[in-house]
Design goal:
There is one protein chain. 36% of the residues lie in helices and 16% in strands. The chain is an alpha/beta fold. It folds into 2 domains: 135 residues, Aspartate Aminotransferase, domain 1 (Alpha-Beta Complex), CATH 3.90.1150; 274 residues, Aspartate Aminotransferase, domain 2 (3-Layer(aba) Sandwich), CATH 3.40.640.10. Helix 3 packs antiparallel against helix 11, helix 13 runs parallel beside helix 15 and helix 14 crosses helix 15. The longest helix has 19 residues. The radius of gyration is 22 Å and the shape is globular. The chain starts with a helix and ends with a helix. Bound molecules: pyridoxal-5'-phosphate (PLP). The site of pyridoxal-5'-phosphate has 14 residues, from helix 5. Pyridoxal-5'-phosphate binds next to helix 5.
């Protein structure tokens, strides 16, 4: 076995980490995560940490769940990989049927890929090509939200709206119409909910009334814009967007990559407002957080626009080498079985309530301007001056300091700027939620108030 120092040496010499300023990386030698048990990660020195970020928002039943592991092993004994180009396999077919069954009504077909970004990319391409083949080829534009995050491939970045991540790629991106971010704390329209009558959603109506014939689709993260800091949309916002899309014959794409599979308290966030999208992107929790698999679901009507004789070339010319990998499908099926058998979504209500109660105390802290929560997704936003809402200087990296302090106390989390994100696994016990909350309070106090 290599020593911790040897692993870190190889890492520092050769590894380029995602979303990481590599100049600073050697200054904070990384934890080497070697094992996991349930909701806990264990490093190479045997230290245990609660996985408060669900290993980047994916873990549903905890790590190394025996049922998911067994399903993968059994699949491995039969078929490791086979392509879906020209062939099929039992797991891909069964999982497609299961996804159609559990997602909102009107989604009938499943197209697999490997990451949330590719699921979104596929949704955008399908929406574009749909209109080309449905007799309205001028409908080529997209509408998305300020502060949106849909992944890192170029199409997903085009509809993304996080300047920090996306601005540099400007010349490579296609233009997109943007809606003001539905963020009531800092309303771009300087209105207040509910008296605003969701004016930020009505902007979509104005755009579509003027240019609807040129717009293919709206894409939105339903209910929660995750990566911009867990921005929870006001009640009714999603329904309003869906209604406006329907009235104007524009497709509604729900990016449920982060919110899907019970994360928001419902199986899918669209259920919170009974919204039925035309296209839906899924990823992250689809395999319970074990293997990379993503899916784009489409309505029958969209699918039919791609049907034709061979030489009409209406085919969706898209597909990845590992599309619908049998091991990943087996993991996803085991995940969905577990979710059903253990009633995981309904069962998460207690943990959600506990989190809400604990966060209401954290919201009172001197440097916490807002806590935002939907289900088991939460953001704690830190500011230098709560009264005036003055943020900290970015160079202070307060969010980063807080997560490093939390690590010392046995919790792994990640910040988004100065918003601390809490994303515990759905399988978290009430004691584990308690540990997460008390550690957060302690770490925030330590960093922002110089407490113990
Ligand atoms: C809403 C949303 N869409 C898409 C993605 C991209 O997923 P992936 O990182 O698997 O490509 C993410 C990732 O966080 C996401 O939150």
């Amino acid at each position: 076995m290599p020593t911790t120092e040897e692993i870190i040496g190889q890492d520092l010499a050769h590894l380029w980490h995602p979303f990481t300023q590599m100049k600073l990386w050697p200054g904070e030698p990384p934890l080497v995560i070697e094992r996991a048990e349930g909701n806990w990660l264990i490093d190479s020195e045997g230290q245990r940490y609660f996985d408060g970020v669900s290993s980047l928002w994916v873990t549903v039943h905890g790590h190394n769940h025996p049922d998911i592991n067994r399903a993968i092993r059994e699949q491995l004994a039969k078929l490791d990989h086979s392509t879906l180009l020209g062939l099929t396999h039992p797991g891909a077919a069964r999982l497609a049927a299961e996804l159609v069954r559990i997602t909102p009504a009107g989604l009938d077909k499943v197209f697999y890929s490997e990451s949330g970004s590719t699921a979104v990319e596929i949704a955008l391409k399908i929406a574009f090509q749909y209109w080309q083949q449905a007799g309205q080829p001028e409908k080529t534009g997209f509408v998305s939200l300020e502060g949106a995050y849909h992944g890192d491939t170029i199409g997903a970045v085009s509809v993304g709206g996080m300047e920090l991540f996306h601005e540099v790629y400007g010349p490579l991106l296609f233009p997109v119409y943007r809606l003001p971010q539905p963020h009531c704390l800092r309303c771009r329209l300087e209105l207040s909910y509910p008296y605003c009558d969701l004016a930020c959603a009505q902007v979509l109506g104005s755009i579509l009334r003027e240019r609807g014939e040129q717009i293919a689709a709206l894409i939105v993260e339903p209910r929660v814009q995750g990566a911009d800091g867990i921005i929870v949309q006001p009640e009714g916002y999603l329904t309003r967007l869906a209604d406006i899309c329907r009235e104007n014959d524009v497709l509604f794409i729900a990016d449920e990559v982060a919110t899907g599979f019970g994360r928001t308290g419902k199986m899918f966030a669209c259920e919170l407002e009974d919204v039925q999208p035309d296209l839906m992107a899924l990823g992250k929790g689809l395999t319970g957080g074990v293997l990379p698999l993503a899916a784009t679901l489409a309505s029958q009507k969209i699918f039919e626009a791609f049907l034709g004789e061979f030489d009409e070339f209406k085919t969706f010319f898209h597909g990845h080498t590992y599309t619908g990998n049998p091991l990943a499908c087996a993991a996803a099926l085991a995940n969905l079985d577990l979710m059903k058998t253990n009633q995981v979504v309904a069962g998460s209500a207690l943990a959600i309530g506990k989190l809400r109660f604990g966060l209401s105390h954290i919201a009172e802290m001197e440097h916490v301007i807002q806590v935002r929560q939907q289900g088991l997704m939460a953001g704690i936003e830190l500011v230098a001056d709560k009264k005036n809402g003055t943020p900290y200087e970015p160079g202070l990296r307060m969010g980063h300091q807080v997560i490093m302090a939390a690590r010392e106390h046995g919790v792994i989390i990640r910040p988004l700027g100065d918003t601390i994100v809490l994303m515990p696994p759905l399988s978290s016990s009430l004691e584990e939620i308690d540990h997460l909350l008390s550690t957060m309070e302690r770490a925030i106090r330590q960093v922002t108030e110089g407490g113990p």
